[in-house]
User: Which sequence fits this backbone?
């Protein structure tokens, strides 16, 4: 309960933690999302490791816009599962109605955090439903993942975009090209490692 | 009532009607949205009538994408008002948290139905909060309109875009230019009028 | 040449005609785009005809937002082919650089005209590059279609979304459900047919 | 100069430098964009300094998606100024045609890099045209800035969003809250400063 004297102040860490907690509660592991990333990217980067995929998924999930979309989508799934939405929204989300596209809209705001280059990857996994996406789409479980399946695909697509950006930066470094200012996140990680802390 | 033998089939009319019903229940009239449109457009079209503004708002509200966004947004507002969302989503929506942007994302999907030319109008009314938007933003009422205020601004912006398209078509007709195929909606209205029915 | 006395007035028909003319000049037929639509939709609608696919592609192409995106994208392709862009934009478009995503952004504004439900179809064809998209991606021809391949996929995806909307309307009519106001375009076509004209 | 033996490899630094060079060539200074940011944000953060505004504009401009949009937009403005686009695209861009919205679409991809919370700020400055935007909109100069004025407003809006994110992080630090992983960019700056380099 809020104390009237303390003005509302968002706690970003609580938002980040709730994102991880809810993904877990709804049965999705970071590892599974990372596997989608590997599926999307290993033909372009044969040396890509699962560890890198996991790390890139985590960087995507560290963004507030992503956390907002994940939490909002999962909330709507959960409420639909409990039958608590008003009609006809309840029906549309419960049945993953094909003309209901708000789930795609939220997914899109996630893909977008690393730019438009992720749109294609999103559409591809959303159509083929590999790995975890197949399970999330299984309508026989009684669970409703109308939002979550799109969200998971979108996180994987955004992580793929992030990898494309970093790999380009690495290539340029290897070529001895003057460095563009894009590797700030890696820099932060190096700093954190040196300081004994961890930025994530 | 659903019969187990009848597979789920979306009833578009029910979706349309729920949209109007919920706007009404949350205290927003079509007239008020039309007033925002008039405010945005009368300096460009001095002869614009309130009737035209109302009609254009109705055409925007007849789109399924718009109805989906309106219903989803209002549902989240209502649940936040009842304190039924999980934390910290409850807090973010309840306090219209400035880093929570999913409301803007839904608003954007509405603006977009008549293309990107509506973005500016949306931002403008969302900043100035004229008319109905001021009331929806009054945090002292106990009501929560985190989504609805953005949605109403977006509907007004989309209606403004629609007017811009139709006015151009009218200008070209007056100039005796060969007609582009954009006036299908008006055509539909003429047809409906002639048939004694009404398409909206 | 503009006559100083005549204020600029957009001729929508000229914009529409240029869109068709430039698609043709760049080697893309409406039929080929319709084939992508058929590929995307026939598993959902086994009775879908090529004629319907063509008609839906034409309705997508009749939208000003779509025409604007098509013309702008083709213009950039043509200028890149002629080597007339400044560096490094010339290089990025010429090589369909993977970190250059403005082509996807324009494609997206096209997909969006019938809502977010088309995102998946766009990503899917953009990844698999069936039919005309394979030809447009053949880098050995000397032609540059960095924008056009995404645009063609986007038009096909938007047409698919439009079909999903109309098929739902048809299903509801067959079920004798009260009609939602979505079939205005068909109404316009019926009106035009009756009047002996054609709205398209 | 391209050597046939060296495969194309994007030089990110060249893209970044071209972005700055072309903004300068088209008469826009970072200072002026920062002034728009100050105008948008100082009522929320009275202690905001011009130096912070400049720094945030620079961080926005360091993003590849932003650079791509800036360069593409300026290229189209320049070509329109030289009369080198095909008709009717030439006319639409030359006259900043109200139904031509591709400039807004590019602007939007810029605003989006720090999420949807920037949409409102974009629309607001785009409507009011303060400062540099008024000059860019002066149609009497013979210069064409159809894209650039929207781009500049979008960069300012994105920088404003970035400030909102950082200020929240600062507030949470002051409150002694556990830190969310959002300050990686600042971390990178500290690292760079310590290493004697500059991540820009």
Assistant:
């Amino acid at each position: 309960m809020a104390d009237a004297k303390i003005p509302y102040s968002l706690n970003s860490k609580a938002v980040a933690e709730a994102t991880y907690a809810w993904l877990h509660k709804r049965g999705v592991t970071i590892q599974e999302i990372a596997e989608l990333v590997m599926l999307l990217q290993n033909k372009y980067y044969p040396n890509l490791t699962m560890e890198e995929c996991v790390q890139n998924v985590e960087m995507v999930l560290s963004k507030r816009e992503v956390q907002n979309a994940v939490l909002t989508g999962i909330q709507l799934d959960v409420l639909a599962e409990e039958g608590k939405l008003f009609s006809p929204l309840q029906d549309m989300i419960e049945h993953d109605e094909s003309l209901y596209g708000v789930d795609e809209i939220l997914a899109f705001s996630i893909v977008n955090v690393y730019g438009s280059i992720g749109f294609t990857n999103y559409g591809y996994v959303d159509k083929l439903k590999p790995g975890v996406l197949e399970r999330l789409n299984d309508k026989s479980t009684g669970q409703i993942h109308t939002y979550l399946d799109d969200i998971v695909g979108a996180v994987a697509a955004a992580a793929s975009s992030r990898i494309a950006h970093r790999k380009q930066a690495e290539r340029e470094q290897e070529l001895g090209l003057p460095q563009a200012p894009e590797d700030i996140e890696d820099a932060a990680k190096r700093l954190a490692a040196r300081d004994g802390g961890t930025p994530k």
Notes: Chain C has one domain: 12-177. Residues 126 and 153 of chain C are 6 Å apart (CA to CA).
